[in-house]
Every structure is written in C-alpha cells, then in structure tokens.
Design goal:
The protein is of the alpha+beta class and 484 residues long. The protein contains 9 helices and 6 strands. It is a lipid-anchor.
Length: 484
Amino acid sequence: MTERSFSFPRWRALVPLAAALALAGCMTQPLAPPPAHAGVAVPASFGTARTADGAPWTVAPPAEAQERGAWWRSFQDPVLDTLVERAGTGNTSIQQAAARLAEARALLRSADANRAVQVGAQGGVARQAGANTAGGATPSTLATAGLNVSYELDLFGRLSQASDAARLDADAQAALLQSTWLMAQADVAQAYLQLRAVQAERVLVDESLAAYQGTLRLTQRRFQAGDVAELDVARVQTEVASTESEALALAREEQTLTHAIAVLVGEVASGFAVPAAGTDAALPVIPPGVPGTVLARRPDVAAAQAAVLAAQARVGVAQAAWFPAITLTGSGGYASPELSDLFKWSARAWSAAALLSLPIFDGGRREAGVQGAQARLDAALAAHRGQVLTAFREVEDQLGALRLLEGQAEAQDRAVASARRATQLSDTRYRNGLVSQLELLDARRSELRNRRQALQVRTAQYQATVRLIRALGGGWGEAAATAG
C-alpha cells in the first residue's frame, strides 16, 4: 500500500504532459501547395504544338538559384555592358530591395531567437514594509542580484512554424531582390537600345535633310534661271522645314532617354552622357525549343511560391494558439538585507518553475486569427497561380512577336532596297528634266519612310528579345548564340 501511495501521485503528474503530447500529435496542418506551378501545367517547350505529338508536359521544380549569366553580353556592346554593371551598384531600386532583404533576415534571426534559451541578469535594492516582510510593519531593505533563465517548450510547433515563416519571408525577399536586379538590367538594356535606335534614326533624318537642302539649292538656281516656278521652291522649302522639325523631335527624345539611363544607373541627369558606340549591337538568336522549365527561374514566381509557403506556416502558427504554452523558468543569485552580505554564500537564493498557460475564452480571437491566416493563404495561392499564368503569357507573347518581326524585317529590307533604287532613278530623271519635282520628292519621302520603318522593326526585335529574357527570368543558357 505504501509503495502504491507513493507512485500514484508521480503517475498522475505525467497525465497533463501525456495529454498535451497527444494533442500535438492530433494537430493538423494545411497541405503544401504544388512545388512550383500552383496547378498550372508546364509545357515541354514554348511556342510549339503541345498535343499533336502527344509529348508529356513537365513539372518545373523551383530553380530561381540557377545561374542566369551575363545575358546582356549577347548583344556584344561594351557600352551596354558598362551601363548594366553601373546599374548593379547605383540603382536605387536594387538598393531598396537589398535593404528589405536585410530586414527580413533580421526578423528571421529574431524568430529563431525565440526558440533559444533566454538568459538575463537582474539586480536591485528594495525598501519595503508589510505583512510579507520579516519585521511586519517595520521597514526593511532587501538587495538582490542574480540570473534568470527561461525556455519555452515548443511542443505544438508554434515557434518552429513562426521561424519557418520568417525564413520563407526572407527567401521571398531574396527572390524579389533577384527580380529587381533583372528588372533594372532589362530597363537599362531597353533604354540603351532605344537610345541607339533614336540616334540611328536621327542620322537617317539628317541625311534626308542634307538631300532636301541640296535639292532646294538646285531648285532655287533653276527658279532664278526661269526654268521652274516659285511653287517648286516652296514645295522643297516645306520638306526642308518639316525634316528639320523631325530632327529636333528626335533630339528631344534622345535627351529624354539619356536622362532615363542616368536615373537607372543611379547618377544625376545633369551632365550625364552615354559614350558613343563603335558598332551596332548584335541581335541574339533564340535557340529553338526553349524548355518550359526555364520559366521556373523567374524570381518573381519564386517569390510568390515562398509567400505561399510562408502563409501556410502562419496558418499553423494560428492553429497552435489553441494549445497550451509551457515555459520553464529558473533563477539563481543572492538576496540579503545588507549590501555588505549580498554576495556571501549564506545569502544565496534560487528558484525553478514550470508555467502552463491555456486561454479558455477569448471572444473568438483565436478563431478569427486562424480564419485570417487561411484567407491570406488562399490569396497567396491565387497570386502565385496568377503570376505563373502571366509568366507564360509574357514568354509566348515575345516568342510570337520575334517570329513575326523576323518576317517583317525581311519584307521591310526588300522595301528599302526598292525605295532606294526608285530615289536614284527619280533624281537622275529630274536632273535631266524628264520628271517633275513632285515625283522626286515623293521618291525621297518613300525611301526615308521605309528606312525609318526598317530601323523601327530592328529596334522592336531588340526590345522583344530583352522582354523575352526578362520573361524567362534571365538568358536561355549555353544554347544561345549571337548573330550580327
């Protein structure tokens, strides 16, 4: 009987802990979302028939850490290379994204610290009187010094899931930093290539202006000789003035693009200048059959996925609020009514305790917290799926645009060759008095228009290539080749 009476209380003391562990084992967590595509099937390649040959669609695992390489070097323009490198250190959007990543990592360290043992030191002197003092109503002094130690048992995963959520937040910010890098690089490349196109277009307009001015001088001499009417002079003067206006408009656009590049590289627009390029930039060639899995490198898709997983972890944190919190505390030190005796061995004092806390009624606060966390998870899942669908659309848009622009460029080149030949023939016939001035002016206008359209098509190919690289999350690897 004596043995039973002694062991029975010890067995009963373990009942709360066993019940708590059983509850922890019964705790359910939301299912993890699909690893990378949020329910969107990933095609084996872009821009190809996906059902005619019966080829299976592939699943794209996260690959945002894949090396993207210096994709801008495929344009073979040293000035562009320099500008992109300057943007990497001076772009303010990149600096802001880096600061947000540093903040997220600091919050992760803070969340991890909550899972560690907490140690603190304390000391003080109190003057008190009352029923809790040795002298009753007589005032007495008590000096204390010691250490406090506390540790919360994470039986239900609340602290670990909060730490996981903070880690995923940091991963999302790291992916967003990569996205900001890519965005800044693409913006610099697009602005620079557009600037070069405007400069080349301005050269064409200046050439046309010089030709019109030569025609004007010839027409004025013929008018003075009585060979042509004043109307012919007025027509050529109109073309000269109109072309001068176009040249000034292009100069204004060139200035605006230069200032935009200055901001992108983090420099003041005043006095900023883009060095002259030695040759035209090369147009990268897209290799056939770009795999659909390349899309998994997009940092914004990776950030959306990390946001989903972080929201999932926070659902678990909200659910864990229903379970008790168990905290172990301990303290040790000295306590004495005399400062001179405070650190004597006889003044030592210590304590150890375990605290179990379980909210019973909170007016629905915990349930509202779970519902709010679940709603945020649903929103993150929808945002992730939308990001993936948008990414596919952007890639397909640019692949289709490049395919059509290639055909348009070939047709436009033929139009330029024909227009140039027509201008040469009209100029010869006009100088020999075989055709009117109107025919010559029409031929020159047609040539200028077609040459400018050819240049604009070439610029559109550059821009579509940069947008494709941005849509793919970087270059397409070693399969890429370049052509002048």
